[in-house]
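Pilot study result, target chain (241 residues):
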Amino acid sequence: MTASLSPEQLDELKRYPTPTVCNAIEMFDVRPRNEGFMLPGIECRFPELDPIVGYAATATFCAQEPARPGVKVDMRAYYEHILAQPAPRILVAEDLDEQPIGALFGECNATLHQALGCVGHITNGGVRDLDETREIGFQFFAGCVQVAHAYVHLEDFGQPVVVGGVAVRPGDLIHADKHGVCLIPLETAPNLAEACAVMEELERPRIELARSADFTPDRYVAVVEEFSRGCAEAVSKFARS
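Predicted structure:
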């Protein structure tokens, strides 16, 4: 993987909402526009919190039945896997149960993983202890909210997982907020904040005209055409970077 971003670069990316990040990624022309973001069903549980940016640590878990006899995940190795990812970190966990029944994360696991440098947890399963977790500023993205942990246990860690229709690998860079979860192609990361700023600048005339007394459909069409030309120039610039 490419070198991790500096704290300053990460802070710059956190200034932008995830839709702007998704739009800016398109300027690099590195993946289809219908890929790289999680599908509906993975919901932000604390939409009032700021966007999070971090590198993925991964795990799989089950809760329907107890762990198989004699099969136990080495938790020290699991913690080492998390710490091996660049900070800040996000634990992305795939619930393998056919129907989610037990939450892997509540107040205790959120607090533990925050101590391990994680800023959030993403899962197709459930989460709980929402008030307590919000209080410590730890973000949840989950398929549901649950009351119990049932027989929850890790099945594996450090392998690719599929959550929200997206394959996530250890070390993948993630941007997420109240709109959803987006994977940042690592080759775009160093210049992505600049591309976000360019995208906002290109969009501004459309918004300002639509809000002004000078608005007419003809004028708006002309502004959209200028926007399209600007986007094409930006793609030409960033796709070569």
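One observation from the pilot: The chain has a mean pLDDT of 95. A full batch analysis is planned for the follow-on phase.
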